[in-house]
Amino acid sequence: xxxxxxxxxxxxxxxxxxxxxxxxxxxxxxxxxxxxxxxxxxxxxxxxxxxxxxxxxxxxxxxxxxxxxxxxxxxxxxxxxxxxxxxxxxxxxxxxxxxxxxxxxxxxxxxxxxxxxxxxxxxxxxxxxxxxxxxxxxxxxxxxxxxxxxxxxxxxxxxxxxxxxxxxxxxxxxxxxxxxxxxxxxxxxxxxxxxxxxxxxxxxxxxxxxxxxxxxxxxxxxxxxxxxxxxxxxxxxxxxxxxxxxxxxxxxxxxxxxxxxxxxxxxxxxxxxxxxxxxxxxxxxxxxxxxxxxxxxxxxxxxxxxxxxxxxxxxxxxxxxxxxxxxxxxxxxxxx
Length: 336
What we know:
Blueprint: E1 3-9, H1 18-29, H2 39-65, H3 72-85, E2 92-98, H4 105-113, E3 118-122, H5 132-145, E4 152-156, H6 162-176, E5 185-191, H7 195-200, H8 204-220, E6 227-232, H9 245-254, E7 259-263, H10 272-288, E8 293-296, H11 304-314, H12 317-320, E9 332-334
Parallel strand pairs: 1-2, 1-3, 3-4, 5-6, 5-7, 7-8
Antiparallel strand pairs: 4-9
């Protein structure tokens, strides 16, 4: 019997073309947990405005980050799975799947459930309905489709897991090793969500983001007054979590901060939001406002400490008891 581990990332367009981007946005923004506005309003807006004009607008951005091997998000998700498979016991096999795009979590989950037990583990350490909630819902629907479903476990990494924090710290040291002068300020930029979502979920998401920031600062001994937790990638007219990353960087520069380091702990692989939005747009904003240097810290990707954290999550407890267990925060499991 095969134990399948599905490592879930958000997904990416299949190619940097208008058509592929349109297909991805249709799937992603058409999910009512991602955009929960009334269907009578949102569906026409999505179809006649967003899908008509946005693909051409963001296509050059995707082209700027695309590599010969494909999208960075896809490449780095596959590297995580490859590293994890080297750590897994015989009979357990990890695969990369995506909530939107291919290979599809929904399709592959149905197939894997016919072969044996399944563990679904997201690459989202901060819980909210528009990311982890969509995965939990999809898995529950899959269980209901099977008359005699096998065991299905669903996990999301803990926001302050020591392995995740260690990986973030090491990436930070790698990024700042060649700075001639130490940074003045650290900015932790997380993907934003609407304020009403966070309120509805009792600040589960924002609380998780701040927990990651605190754990990192404690780990490197950095003073809280020289660090800011901010949120990026706003979409639509309603209020989103703040402060906004771009506004934060502009304000810091105008206050005399000359060198900042930006970490993006919610993005465990790099993509448009980190490489372009932070590495290009945010850097330009900071420099134009008077800043001198902005260093972007890469995602944790396949860092060994993070891979070991994933192994602790996906390998059943009885198998871990046969080895010396490493100390780690308990991952969040969702009943499926």
